[in-house]
Design goal:
31% helix; four-stranded mixed β-sheet; binds ligand EPZ; UDP-n-acetylglucosamine1-carboxyvinyl-transferase, Chain; 14 helices; 2 domains
């Protein structure tokens, strides 16, 4: 297992062009199963989760063509295998997103239950409840979901009990081929839901209201080929902004959309950094003055993303004053806290979902261990600030969602190297 070696204390300065959004790419790849035409996707990030999703599509019988450095074309006209196996789903829970499309297109599918993960139990009850409302029969047996609909799925009015990104996406895809109209309420409004809807519309789906509390889908007999360009990964952008802020550097991020990060940019200003934006760039400077400890409460979009909670917690560890970080989306998303304490942070849990932090003036390099994707990025931030050498182990977690992170950090002046396990 590879690790990262980082000598901290160097301010990050320079320009970053972010990669495509992992969390938009994954549902879009699942959506290719809805049509027998080709779907061309550009700006696809080369990260482990995307590789795993492509592997799953290949297992199902899809034909995948790589176009240039960041494009893929997927044709699922010859899909024949309707089973998403445990061996793949357990490694990448977003595989569960093939359930809706395969059910809607073929009327039958078996998908392994994803199981829990480091950050929480992450049930899929809302996905299943909504698909039943569309007329599917759902059985659970030996860890697999078997979904069937002997006739075409039927449009329905559905209200989610919990705001769920994946649930919204799975059901939006299934409803695209249902008979009649489906209205989804209490849906996720994340940009990745809007990006999926845009790609579905390019394939002939009739979807409106994405990005609001209510999405309306008028089902079609079939969808055709389509295509889209994946937008910048807003979580990668937020992660690098936090790294520049923590190291008292200055960064300019190009080809991104500041609008989808409104709440996040306001939060960086509350920390005392200077933010400037235009329609496709964000500049952050933290070269002057101290960082001010800032209370963080995560929430569904447009609130502070749970996927940036660990990064903001790391920033609070080296900001002046006391702060509280409240995680409202997942029940166990503070695995990074104890690892940051190993770097000298003064932080503890008041409850499973509330962390209290007292900022310190110095962190000291140490060996730490990554436990999940976004926790790993908070350890990178801590190591970039810490005096001396740190080593972050199990960075396969990082590689799931950050493409060539060490190269991007080196371009910003960081002293970081990847140590390949032999
Ligand atoms: C997506 O996961 C993202 N993953 C996650 O990013 C992100 O943290 C999460 O949305 C929240 O924004 C992808 O897009 C691939 P949810 P998802 O369903 O869809 C509960 C990363 O780091 N829930 O919105 O699985 C669930 O337990 C990853 O890139 C139910 O109770 O998240 C959680 O508490 C980590 N029943 C809450 O909803 C259900 O049926 C939000 O989960 C579904 C979810």
């Amino acid at each position: 297992m590879d690790s990262l070696r980082i000598r901290g204390g160097i301010p990050l300065n320079g320009e970053l062009c972010p990669g495509g959004s992992k969390n938009a790419t994954l549902p879009i790849l699942a959506a290719t199963l809805l049509s027998s035409g080709s779907v061309d996707i550009r700006n696809v990030p080369r990260v482990r989760d995307v590789t795993l999703m492509l592997e799953l599509l290949d297992t199902l019988g899809a034909e995948i063509e790589v176009n240039g450095s960041d494009g893929v074309s997927v044709n699922t006209s010859r899909v024949h295998n309707l089973v998403a196996p445990y061996e793949l789903v357990r490694r990448m829970r977003a595989s569960f997103l093939v359930l809706g499309p395969l059910l809607a297109r073929f009327g039958q599918v078996e998908v392994s239950l994803p199981g829990g993960c480091a950050i929480g139990s992450r049930p899929v009850d809302q996905h299943l409840k909504a698909l039943r409302k569309l007329g599917a029969s759902i059985d659970l047996d030996q860890g697999y979901v078997t979904a069937r609909s002997k006739d075409r799925l039927q449009g329905a009015d559905i209200e989610f009990d919990v705001v769920t990104v994946g649930g919204t996406q799975n059901v939006m895809m299934a409803a695209s081929l249902a008979q009649g109209t489906t209205r989804l309420r209490n849906v996720a409004m994340e940009p990745e839901v809007v990006e999926l809807a845009e790609c579905l519309r390019s394939m002939g789906a009739h979807i409106s209201g994405d990005g609001t509390e209510c999405i309306t889908i008028v089902g079609q007999e079939q969808l055709h080929g389509g295509g889209c360009k994946v937008r910048a990964d807003r979580i990668e952008v937020g992660t690098f902004l936090a790294a520049a802020a923590a190291t008292h550097g200055s960064i300019r991020i190009v080809d991104c959309d500041p609008f989808v990060l409104n709440t996040v940019l306001e939060t960086f200003q509350r920390f005392g950094t200077t933010i400037k934006t235009d329609e496709s760039t964000i500049e952050l400077s933290a070269q002057h003055g101290e960082l001010r400890a800032t209370d963080i409460v995560t929430g569904v979009y447009p609130g502070i993303p749970t996927d940036l909670q660990a990064q903001f917690l790391a920033l609070n560890c080296v900001s002046r004053g006391n702060s509280r970080v409240v995680e409202t989306v997942f029940e166990n998303r503070f695995m990074h806290l104890q690892e940051l304490v190993r770097l000298g942070a003064n932080a503890s849990l008041e409850s499973p979902t509330i962390a209290v932090i007292q900022g310190v003036s110095k962190l000291r390099g140490a060996k730490v261990m990554a436990t999940d994707l976004r926790a790993s990025s908070s350890l990178v931030i801590g190591a970039l600030v810490a005096d001396g050498m740190s080593q972050i182990n199990r960075i396969y977690h990082l590689d799931r969602g950050y493409e060539r992170i060490e190269e991007k950090l080196q371009l910003l002046g960081a002293d970081v190297e990847r140590v390949r396990a032999n």
